Each structure stands twice: as C-alpha cells, then as structure tokens.
Amino acid sequence: MKMIVEKIENKFDAEEVIEDFEALTKDAGRIQEETLQKILEENGGTEYLKQWGLNGRTDAETFKACVPIVTHKDLEPYIQRIVDGDLSPILTGKPIETISLSSGTTQGKPKFVPFNDELMESTMQIFKTSFAFRNREFPIGNGKALQFIYSSKQFKTKGGLAAGTATTNVYRNAQFKKTMKAMSTPCCSPDEVIFGPDFQQSLYCHLLCGLIFRNEVQVVSSTFAHSIVHAFRTFEQVWEELVVNIREGVLSSRVTVPSIRLAMSKLLKPEPELADTIYSKCSSLSNWYGLIPELFPNTKYIYGIMTGSMGPYLKKLRHYAGELPLLSADYGSSEGWVGVNINPKFSPEMVTYAVLPNIGYFEFLPLEENLNGMEKANSPVGLTEVELGEEYEIVFTNFAGLYRYRLGDVVKIKGFHNGTPELQFVCRRNLLLSINIDKNTEKDLQLAVEAAAKHLVDEKLEVVDFTSHVNISADPGHYVIFWELSGEATDEMLQDCCNCLDKSFIDAGYVSSRKVSAIGALELRIVKRGTFHKILDHFVGLGGAVSQFKTPRCVGPKNSSLIQILSSNVVKSYSSTAFC
C-alpha cells in the first residue's frame, strides 16, 4: 500500500490538475456554498462561532447576517490564547498546532495567524495548479530550480505550538518536498543551505550551487522578486570568489556554519573548466545585462511574486534577465491563499489571479466613495456577484479559524475564468500616505518614485530601494521619502528629483492641500548605501524570514526602530520647492 501511495505522489499529471480546476471554476457558486458549509460544520461548535447564534446553520445568508466582518485586531485575543496553549475549541474544532507569523513589516511587529493541514493542502493545490498552466506554456524537462529560499527557525510559543513564517511552515512540511519532486523541479541547494541560520552564508551557497549545476538550472525563483534582484546584486560583489571556489573545489572561509560546510563539501570538487567558462561569461557582460541566461543557459523563465510592492524591482530584474520571461507567482498571504496565475504569459504588470473556489469562502467589499470623498459602508458581495472593472477589498473565511476576515488588499475584477473572477492586485488598503484629506496608495508612491528617478538616468544612477513616512511632528505635516542610490548624485539633480516627487502625487486632496500649505513641502532624504540591508537584518533579527521580507513602503509612526535606522543613516536632505 505504501508503495502505491508513493507512486501516486511521485506522478504529476498536469492535464488532470487542469481538468480539476476547470470543473471547480465552472461551478464556482455551488462550490462556494459547499466550502462554507464544510467550514461551518467542522467549526460550528467553537467558542468564537457559538457566540454569534448560528445554532448549527451553515447557509451563507445566516452566516452573513450573524457573523461580523473583522480585522486581525478583533481576533487577536482569541489567537493569543491559542498561542499561549489553550487547547479548547476557540477558533477551530481541531486544535491548532502551528502558528504563522505574517511579514508584519508595516506595523513593526509580526502578527500571529493560525496554520493547519487544510492550509497546507490548499498551498499544494495552488502550487500544482499554477505549475500545470506554467508547464503548458513553458515546458521544463528534468532539471533543477535555483531557488533563493530561506527558512527561518521555527520556535515554540509559550503554549508549545510551533511558530514560524508562513513560508517556513510550508518549506518544513514533508508535502512541499514531495510536490516539488513530483513537479521535476528539485532545488539546487541542499536543505542545510535553505535552513541555515545565517542568511548571507545561505545566499552565497545558493549562488555557488546554481553555478555547479548551471546547465541543469531550468528555473530561477524566489518567494519575492526583490530576493532575486538582491541575490544577483550580491553576485556582482562576490563572483570572483565563487569562481575561485569552483576552480579549487574548496568552499570560501566566509561560510562558517559547520552543517552548511559539510553539505557543500559533498558538492564541491575542483572544476577548472567550469571556473574558466563562468569567468569569461562574467568578464564579457556589459553592465551585467542578461546575467541570468549567461550563467544558466537552459533557464526557461524567472518566477516569483512580482506585483504590489515588488513592482519597483522589475526594471533591475529585467536587466539581469535579458530576454527571459518574468512569470508572476500566485496570490496569497500569511492568512491563506486567494488565487492562481493561470495566464503565465501575461507580464507582471498585467497578471491576474483566478480565485480557487474551494480553498475558502470569499466575499468582496465594494470600494465606493460618497460625495465627501469618504468611503461608504457597503454590503459585501459573493464570489460570483462581483462586477467587471470594479474594485473591492477581499473578506475571507478559511479552514484555519478566520471568519469574515478583512485581508486588507484591494483588487480589481479584470475578467472571469468560467464562473470564477480573475483579480488584479491593486494595493494594500492600509498602506496610505495621508495627513488630512489626501489619500495616496502604495501604487501612487511607486509611480512618483519612478517619475522622479528618470532624472537620474543620464548619470547612470538608479534608486536601489525606497520607503516613505508621514511626518506629523512638524506643523503642517509633510511626506518624507527615503532613497538609497547606486552612486553619487549632484545636489541640483536631487533637488529636481525632490520637486518631481512632490508634483507626481496627483491625488486632488494632496494637490489642493499643498497649494494652501495645509500639507508642508515634501522632503527627500538620501540614505547611505546598505541602509535597506540594515532594515532587512533588523527584520531577520526579530525572527522574520528573508524569503518573507518586503521593504515597507510606508513606515508607520509606531515603528520607531525602523525610523531610527533610516534617520541615523541620512546623508543628504532636500525640501521641495515645487509649490513655492
């Protein structure tokens, strides 16, 4: 029996996976009802749901009439009791044994979210479905994936539960490895590198493993696009040392973790010809353009999350990728999955996600404003009731104890696949730069930075990374934008950038407030090279995983440690004269 099970797990039938997906999406409305019924049957006896008077009913109307829409803050007291070891059925019928930490880089501290087998199953369903559609367009043979993935340590909570980032909980699950193997994309790097305690050493070894298996690499990927960019920015600094390691078959002394050294010693042997090839490839490149296909000639595509806050890294990623296609990974969060990319040929800017109707119960809050520019309280609509072209905030109910939970993401309905909507990620709802009547989203900030960065192009300079902050300690309050640059720029050029940033926020509330000085002059602060790396180190020091790190695009007032890191590394500061 065991052999039969293993055989089934080892065989991956893409067409069968696609057929299952087609069947699910054709009957999305009924599947949604069944999914909600299943969630409520399993968890109806919990303390949380009993208080709302469902009395055993599992239909959508009763559920929506009785159970309130909530945020993480509302559920925090319940989750904290679970974290502290309360085994009674609080949020779920079956006890929660694992906790995920969300990336939590906006509020300065991670959030705890329940994680269970059902979430793991939906993760594998998402991975398999998107791989099936990807492989139809970009078939890969039996090769390897150069995956820049890093797993932070799982730790035990006060109540004895295993806690780690969502990516760590997935990577450490036996199902993950089996699924990757079945999909013929095992990782180049040994487990010791992925689970290593030191991110820099793991990154160095990921690069080294990729080079050792350079002809077998078919996919270059990471959880987020910025991790791939960061990896190849690092490669530019250390490539000659990597070449020496390959030539001599001896690992660099910069790697000190014994388990990693042992694992790498089994892969390394003197390969002077390979070293010569890599050396000549790197020496002949112009400004590292097309680095990835030069190093890994059989790569079919580059894969990772490329939407939302990853948008600013695409230009540099395309520079490294040359002609290789960039494929955007699926849409989910620490709380659970939402949709799958079934159109892998779409560019990251155009990518949409088809919602899987059996992984949770989905509702959509319409985003409408009344005449005063304030958002109206609207009734949410169901998965099959959304309208083309409209924007909504996602509210979802999952199998791990979240009921009518506001995810905080704004999405736009771009189309339908059978009966399920295809969503485009717009922005995080709460990541707004706002002082009074102004409202600027993460996308608005990104567009302003892109416009201003054009002033740097002639000097071959680029914005390495950026973030923002609303300074309300001054009166009137004003926006502060922090930039890290790839080199030195003149004061004149940076003053132009600063004015351009200010002018690029075209939100009517911002422009009118600036004109009457209800909002002060925007400030551009230039920070030292490596400052954003210090922010990453700070995040990892708090127990976060590198693979889950996203540069916070707006640093909140409560996040004093991040403000401290940024402020102490400022080398130049400019105030806008755009509205003078």
From TrEMBL:
Q: Does the keyword Ligase apply?
A: yes
User: By what name is this protein known?
Assistant: Jasmonoyl--L-amino acid synthetase jar6
Q: Which UniProt keywords apply?
A: Ligase
Taxonomic lineage per UniProt? Answer: Eukaryota, Viridiplantae, Streptophyta, Embryophyta, Tracheophyta
Stretches of the chain forming a coiled coil according to its record: none
Q: Where is the GH3 C-terminal domain?
A: 443-556
At the top level of its lineage, which domain of life is listed? Answer: Eukaryota
| Origin species | Datura stramonium
Q: Where is the GH3 middle domain?
A: 353-428
Q: What family name appears in the similarity comment?
A: Belongs to the IAA-amido conjugating enzyme family.
Recorded name of the encoding gene? JAR6
| InterPro entries noted in UniProt | GH3 (IPR004993), GH3_C (IPR055378), GH3_M (IPR055377)
* Key word Secreted present: no
